[in-house]
Specification:
Layout (H helix, E strand, L loop, with lengths): L1 E14 L2 E6 L2 E7 L6 H13 L3 E2 L5 E3 L7 E6 L21 H19 L4 E2 L6 E16 L5
Parallel strand pairs: 3-6, 6-7
Antiparallel strand pairs: 1-2, 1-3, 1-8, 4-5
Length: 150
């Protein structure tokens, strides 16, 4: 699994003209799932994101996690995170998981984040055409791949 995490002061996702998820202070997580990902990847990534200390303390140092600051999480599925640009100028998405694999792992990731965070997670609509808006606070943007475990 790959995730791009952005610290936000506000973020939302709209599908078909309707807001399906919206947060204030917190994290926007763009989540890509590939065909080799497992439940273990979902659990590891969820714990890593919820525990990541990227919110400032009173001294301005990044010492707090999203749950420490009472922040929210918005998760948006994004298969394009597994794009290969090795050949030509048209990306290949062959490594992105098909829906029958990706949807259960997406749901497992959401459940793991909710369990770690202790509250519901906002979300986009899996597989839909979505418009994502955010104010990236910092800006702070971090990329994580569960295969690399770093």
């Amino acid at each position: 699994m790959r995730a791009v995490i952005q610290r936000t002061s506000e973020a939302s996702v709209t599908t078909g003209g309707m807001v399906s998820g919206q947060i204030g202070r917190g994290l926007l997580v763009l989540l890509g799932i590939e065909h080799e990902d497992t439940q273990e990847d979902a659990a590891w990534l969820a714990a890593k994101i919820v525990q990541m200390r990227i919110f400032s303390d009173l001294e301005g140092k990044m010492n707090h996690a999203v749950q420490d600051v009472g922040g929210d999480v918005l998760v948006v599925s994004q298969f394009t995170l597994h794009a290969s640009t090795r050949k030509g100028n048209r990306p290949s998405f062959i490594r992105a998981a098909r829906p029958e694999i990706a949807i259960p792992l997406y749901e497992a990731f959401l459940a793991a984040v909710e369990a770690q965070l202790g509250k519901p997670v906002q979300r986009g609509v899996f597989g839909a055409d979505m418009q994502v808006a955010l104010v990236n606070d910092g800006p702070v943007t971090i990329w994580i791949d569960s295969r690399a475990r770093e």
